[in-house]
Amino acid sequence: MTCDGHDEASCEDVLAEVWLFLDNECNQVRREALQEHLDECGSCLEHYGIEEHLKELLHRKCGGEHAPSDLKERLRTSIRDTVLRQADVTVERGPEGTSVEVRAKKRTTPVE
Known about the structure:
With 112 residues, this protein is an alpha+beta fold.
């Protein structure tokens, strides 16, 4: 996907991290970079909008009841495992805390 002057890799990276962005689970520097990309890229912003509406719908429909802690942890673990399988992840720990960078893995299709 190439859109609005951004290369395919940067759009794939942004879309791979859209849930981290929605959940405020990325550091401030990465959040600002993602926001800048979404502000400038109509295609990614449209995809982000769909994800944002889905999250709002889930919150509205499921927000009145609280899931058990063990269910929440199992879901977090499952989502984290899925993201890790589908992306290149770099975790850095330093004096300012932990930084996580997620990039979509390149998909290669065999040449026929």
